[in-house]
Amino acid sequence: MLPYGHQSIDEDDISAVVEVLRSDWITQGSKVDEFESELAKYCGVKYAVAMSSGTAGLHAACSVVGLKGFEAITTPLTFAATSNAVVYCGGKPIFADIKDDTLNIDTREIKKNITMMTKAIIPVDFAGQPADMDEIMKIAHDNDCVVIEDACHALGAEYRGRKVGGIADMTVFSFHPVKHITTGEGGMVVTNNKKYYKRLKEFRSHGIVRGTRIGEPWYNPIVELGYNYRITDFQCALGISQLNKLDKFILRRREIAERYNKAFANIDNIIILVEKEHNRSVYHLYVIQFKIGRDEIFKRLRANNIGVQVHYLPVHLHPFYQKNFGYKKGDCLIAERYYQQAITLPLFPSMREEDVEDVIKSIAKVVGYY
Length: 370
Description:
It is a single chain. By secondary structure, the chain is an alpha/beta fold. It folds into two domains: 11-96 and 103-243, Type I PLP-dependent aspartate aminotransferase-like (Major domain) (Aspartate Aminotransferase, domain 2, 3-Layer(aba) Sandwich), CATH 3.40.640.10; 246-368, Aspartate Aminotransferase, domain 1 (Alpha-Beta Complex), CATH 3.90.1150. The chain has helices at 11-21, 30-43, 54-65, 81-88, 107-113, 133-142, 194-203, 233-243, 246-264, 294-303, 319-325, 333-341, 353-368, and strands at 47-51, 71-74, 92-95, 118-122, 146-150, 158-159, 162-163, 170-174, 187-191, 270-272, 279-280, 286-290, 342-345. Strands 1-9-8-5-4-2-3 form a seven-stranded mixed β-sheet, sandwiched between helices. The chain has a three-stranded antiparallel β-sheet with strand order 7-6-11, with no helix packed on it. The longest helix has 19 residues, at 246-264. The chain starts with 10 loop residues before the first helix and ends with a helix.
């Protein structure tokens, strides 16, 4: 079965990890600092804090904002970790529907949902295409909100000539194996705000603040409730090695996406996601929509060993969110329509040309069924 996503690990990556495993430090050592520094440099930001996962990064960012008793506006079209992080912090996620063309959060819907209780806006760069960050930042500024960009799909993406990471107040990345680079599990929060940076570092390590009393190195108090969200040195060694190949990985993803776009552009039953002129998508996912027959097409592709998937069940339709927050079908109509039509196709850097061709031929075959 050809999967929809897969890590790309080579001997350089393996050697980097083995070198750390043979060293004195395998938990929090110099490789953590190096990885943070290199990724901050890549994104053009001042600070980066490595975490045990992208979810941990989202939780940390929401905690720094302080959402208890407040609302955070986000998109329903995301992995539930985005809104779960709001709930972890005692906040209420408010779902604003998406735009048809980008599948990202609709800024008009953000404006409709802003209230005096809104403390954060959390856009998601769905599938690797940046959200409308200029407009989102303006809305946030006008309403005294913090913007946490969930860029777990979008490391290396560009918005109006700027790398994702340096636009929002905080930006979160993920290094899960299907993402652009991997540390196994892992994540990163980047920011230009020194206050956020210091609090993020404390949060990932139980809320402990070290070195607060001169001459008493043993005095390491917990000043805020934190978590053990630390990442290891050997994971960061893998991350550094992977980061060196990121641009190559992105180039290959874009090559495959262009092949798909060309193949599917004139098929009546298929809606493709077109990259905006001012964006440079990094195609974490390649999603298409079928106007009719999605369920049967999904089954037939799986039967042909094409490991398609659906990203995602809109968050407001999850039983947890319906039970605890009163959301229901019909609340976000565009996201719901997309979900009924969507399929994610295989796309990852190590796909062979024959794999790409197999996907294209399989799509043509099953569409011909209708």
